[in-house]
Amino acid sequence: MTSTSERAVGFIRLPGMDYVAAGLLRHEDRAYFFRYGRRYLERPGALPIDSARMPLMEELRHRFALAEATSKAS
Q1: For residue 60, is it within any domain?
Q2: pTM for the full model?
Q3: Structural domain that includes position 39
Q4: Disulfide engineering: 64 pairs with which of 5, 16, 32, 56, CB 3.0-4.6 Å?
């Protein structure tokens, strides 16, 4: 079994500011994981990317699974 991992920095535009790094998005196999950066969490006025599903918490790692394709080409 092989495993692939890719990473990208996630940015957010805060009110009255330019874009700032908010955290790290990691793709591993068939799922995505996001974790807010410590410096972003310490920033005054930091906002969650999604307040319902991704609250501002350093110890929490948010997981997103990819939906499987259900249709087949004819």
Answers
A1: yes
A2: 0.71
A3: 5-65
A4: 32
